[in-house]
Write a structure and sequence with these properties.
61% helix, alpha+beta, single chain, 4 strands, 330 residues, 4-stranded antiparallel beta sheet
């Protein structure tokens, strides 16, 4: 995931956040993490795991964005609100987690209202001129995609978001570089693609396309019940979309590639070409949680028959302080 002036890379039970501070130093923080699926086996079952993976992503995503903002000197809610003060007084150290969970709930409600319910209500106005249910359902789905595209275009005008999209491109380039069997160098990363089939943007587009098909099949004429069905079926849509994304990330089938195209095209909005120093940050985050040298040696033995040696770090001896200059009289 791209964060403010940095990258978060996750691998199994740990994640690393690499952020370039205003003084140009790259700070890398390694943190343990335990997914919901790893704690509860039922949450790791196919068609269910996608829902909990999404929840995990939201939770860690908010934490890492907050952390990156603090590192680059941007204060988020510097003065606690009255509600936050009450939480800190009542729950102490647990208050931060409660605030984070509350933020996730608010974000989720906002997303449902904007991308699920608003298109449904607007498409319902089409009934005045069109009586065909399937045409209205198709219009609702296309309107949902249009609202999402407009939203992304609007937020991308913000400088911080534009740079975050550039880091998003660096993240993809880094992973593509490794999966193509190339060493993780700035030059190799820069030459790799900024689109990736397992991207979260692709997941959202797949969700929207699948929702069009599902809502055309499941017909509900009552407006209130239709709104309820849109909310209730979100986990089903997310679960199926997640499984497709997993398959797409591992398959080069022409059919899968064709179905992945809309998500890849949409990444043209959410990823931008990064600069070399952004790729350095992506490499720092990746190297902290993933032994890419071992991966390349095991998966591309023909390219690296002798393995990839670790970089040699030269020890620099401390220089003796220079002698104080003497003042000579004329």
């Amino acid at each position: 995931q791209a964060v403010l002036e940095g990258i978060m890379m996750m691998n199994k039970d740990k994640y690393a956040i690499a952020v370039r501070k205003p003084d140009k130093e790259i700070v890398v923080d390694l943190q343990p993490c335990q997914s919901i699926a790893s704690r509860h086996k039922i949450c790791g079952l196919p068609f269910i795991r996608g829902i909990f993976s999404f929840i995990d992503s939201l939770s860690i995503g908010l934490k890492t964005i907050t952390y990156s903002a603090e590192l680059i000197g941007e204060d988020i809610d510097e003065e606690p609100t009255g509600f936050e003060k009450w939480l800190y007084d009542k729950f102490g150290d647990k208050a931060e987690k409660i605030i984070m969970d509350f933020a996730i709930v608010i974000a989720f409600i906002f997303a449902i209202a904007l991308f699920m319910l608003l298109p449904m209500f607007l498409s319902n106005l089409l009934k005045k001129v069109v009586s065909n249910y399937y045409v209205i359902a198709l219009f609702e789905g296309l309107l949902r995609i249009a609202i999402f595209v407009a939203y992304i275009k609007a937020v991308s005008q913000m400088e911080d978001i534009r740079r975050t999209f550039m880091y998003h491109g660096a993240e993809h380039k880094c992973i593509n570089c490794i999966e193509l069997g190339k060493e993780l160098t700035v030059e190799n990363v820069m030459s790799s693609s900024k689109e990736h089939k397992r991207c979260g943007t692709s997941f959202i587009i797949i969700v929207m396309i699948f929702s069009i098909l599902l809502f055309m099949v499941i017909r509900v004429d009552n407006l209130a019940m239709r709104a309820l069905s849109r909310i209730v079926l979100i986990p089903v849509i997310a679960g199926v979309s997640y499984e497709f994304l997993r398959i797409a990330g591992r398959s080069e089938s022409p059919i899968v590639n064709a179905l992945s195209k809309p998500g890849m095209w949409m990444q043209g909005l959410t990823t931008k070409e990064p600069t070399p120093d952004m790729c350095e940050v992506a490499i720092a985050a990746t190297s902290k949680v993933f032994d890419w040298r071992k991966f390349l040696t095991e998966n591309f033995p023909e390219l690296y028959p002798e393995g990839i040696p670790e970089p040699v770090v030269e020890e620099v001896s401390a220089e003796e302080p220079a002698a104080e200059p003497t003042q000579e009289s004329e």
